[in-house]
Amino acid sequence: GIQVGNASWELFCLEHGIQPDGQMPSDKTIGGGDDAFNTFFSETGAGKHVPRCVMVDLEPTVVDEVRTGTYRQLFHPEQLISGKEDAANNFARGHYTIGKEIVDLVL
């Protein structure tokens, strides 16, 4: 899930001319002045475009790939939430034990 999400945000950035650090070149005209990218991105006061998403996974290594990847500056650290261990493909473990610990961070 996280890997698909990361690939999707990379594609959205390419489609809308947003650089990996969230900046949009001022000389770039996107779709003739179309602001459709605001559906996917929030613009900060500094002009940085931040994805409207929260990435959550109990397995920390997958989220760490996003934290250290090419688009690491695109996401705010609060948007990348990871647990300490995987649920080992066990729904009950993920829902009632490991996942229960991380719910408050997500909400």
TrEMBL record:
Keyword field: Acetylation, Cytoplasm, GTP-binding, Hydrolase, Microtubule, Nucleotide-binding
Family indicated by similarity: Belongs to the tubulin family.
**Organism listed in the record:** Strombidinopsis acuminata
- Its protein name is Tubulin/FtsZ GTPase domain-containing protein
Record-linked SUPFAM superfamilies:
Tubulin nucleotide-binding domain-like (SSF52490)
**Which GO CC annotations does the UniProt entry carry?**
microtubule
| Record Pfam families | Tubulin
Which Gene3D superfamilies does the UniProt entry name for this protein? Answer: Tubulin/FtsZ, GTPase domain
Cited InterPro entries: Alpha_tubulin, Tubulin, Tubulin/FtsZ_GTPase_sf, Tubulin_FtsZ_GTPase
A GO BP entry: microtubule-based process
Reaction(s) catalysed by this chain's protein: GTP + H2O = GDP + phosphate + H(+)
Q: Where is the Tubulin/FtsZ GTPase domain?
A: 1-104
| GO molecular function per UniProt | GTP binding; hydrolase activity; structural constituent of cytoskeleton
